[in-house]
Design brief:
Elements (H helix, E strand, L loop, with lengths): L1 E11 L2 E2 L19 H12 L6 H4 L8 E6 L5 H7 L18 E5 L3 E3 L8 E11 L2 E14 L1 H13 L3 E3 L5 E2 L1 H16 L14 E11 L9 H11 L14 E3 L7 E6 L2 E6 L7 H33 L5 H15 L6 H7 L2 H11 L16
Parallel strand pairs: 10-13
Antiparallel strand pairs: 1-7, 1-10, 2-7, 3-4, 4-6, 5-8, 6-7, 8-9, 11-12, 12-13
Helix pairs in contact: 4-6, 7-8, 7-9, 7-10
Length: 376
């Protein structure tokens, strides 16, 4: 039996809104999300060594939930490939054209409330990913200490059903969806005009779970019984009904004919087991963490671009800025500059392909203003 000693989990939801990108600019615009020049200037400021808080760029406003602001990209391989250059200092100037996000810390500190039967340590870090066209609430969880695959599946299910978190300022416990709803209210107030925005989002989550360290045996695909297969599927997506198709349809082998290098997937959920990187060697530990981060980052980014295409198809009238963003999203999804199993599987989803085809038929908006309607 496998004994896991470190597992990392990253979970994000999705909210899409064209609040800043409508034909008439919003009366309340706390952050400079409406034009390329202002957005890139904000990225240049955030990329500087000086620490920048939300309150620093919104004088006179008291934040509801947002703390420090930083670029969501970093000087590592995923972004080097995505942007086609390792010149990190040039990334802010491409922030608008490449639809690059901003990361924000959450001011409310949360703590994990251990449940019966779980002895491992859990460290939660909530954050927010901001785009001009929406946001994701994001939580990172690091599990340290001995646990089994069964423990991991049970823990993930508890996230969505039990009061597993509490704010450090009070004793009341709450579930992960409750935390995400709380943060969403704060993001609307801090960035998107509060009640003036009408964000939309599916009742789904991107969820990527990767084993970082273990000892003992490994869950080889060829040796899994029906119960073990169900557990891996519940790790990939621990909420909602299980998939109806065979388990083999939910497995993406990272290496052909290798039963110990794989990704189990269900909708936007992923469970990664990369056997050759689980030896206690420093460079392998860094590599598996990098693979996890890239899998999560690429999937969340693609999900936002997909949602942007759907929003563009529904905008009336379609604005030039949204049309241009949709063209950038089409290019990024059709020919992704960085490819990993998590992203490639997502791009095969029929709804993604359908959205791409629909977005390609968008008509270029006229740059001239529409004539005003005459009052009768």
């Amino acid at each position: 039996m496998s004994t896991l000693t470190e597992t990392v989990i990253d979970i994000a939801d999705l909210h899409t809104t064209l609040y800043y990108l409508r034909e008439k600019p919003p009366a309340e615009a706390p952050l400079p999300f409406g034009t390329a020049e202002a957005y890139c200037a904000l990225h240049r400021r955030l990329a500087s060594p000086q620490r920048t808080e939300y309150r620093d760029v919104t004088p006179g406003r008291t934040p509801v939930v947002l703390g420090r602001l930083t670029p969501s990209y970093a000087d590592y391989k995923y972004w080097h490939r995505y942007l086609g250059t390792s010149a990190y200092q040039a990334y802010p100037d491409d922030a608008w054209r490449q639809l690059l996000p901003i990361e924000a810390s959450v001011t409310s500190r949360i703590a994990y409330v251990p449940g019966p039967g779980f002895s491992f340590k859990v460290s939660p870090v909530p954050r927010v990913i901001l785009y001009p066209f929406g946001w994701s609430t994001w939580i990172s969880l690091r599990l340290l200490g001995a646990h089994t695959v069964s423990d991991l599946a049970a823990f993930l299910e508890r996230l969505f059903t039990d009061g597993i978190f509490r704010y450090e300022s009070g004793p009341a416990t709450f579930t992960l969806p409750k935390l995400f709803n709380d943060v969403a209210r704060g993001v609307r107030a801090d960035v998107f005009g509060g009640d003036q925005t009408r964000d939309v989002g599916p009742q789904e989550f991107v969820l990527v779970t990767t084993v970082m360290a273990k000892h003992g045996g490994s869950p080889s695909l060829g040796a899994l019984g029906a119960h073990e297969q169900t557990e891996l599927l519940r790790i990939a997506r621990p909420y909602g009904p299980p998939p109806n198709d065979p388990f083999s349809q939910r497995v993406y082998r990272l290496q052909s004919n290798n039963d110990l290098e794989y990704m189990v997937h269900d909708k936007h959920g992923r469970f990664l087991w990369v056997e050759h990187l689980l030896e206690p060697i420093a460079w392998k530990s860094r590599h598996v963490r990098c693979y996890h981060n890239n899998s999560f980052t690429s999937l969340v980014h693609a999900w936002h671009l997909h949602a942007l295409l759907d929003a563009a198809a529904q905008q009336r009238p379609l604005t030039r800025v949204v049309f241009d963003m949709a063209q950038a999203a089409i290019a990024a999804l059709e020919t992704p500059p960085y490819k990993c199993a998590s992203l490639l599987q997502y791009l095969e989803v029929p709804s993604v392909k359908k959205s791409l085809e629909k977005a390609k038929s968008l008509q270029t908006p006229s740059d001239s203003p529409r004539p005003k309607r005459r009052r009768k």
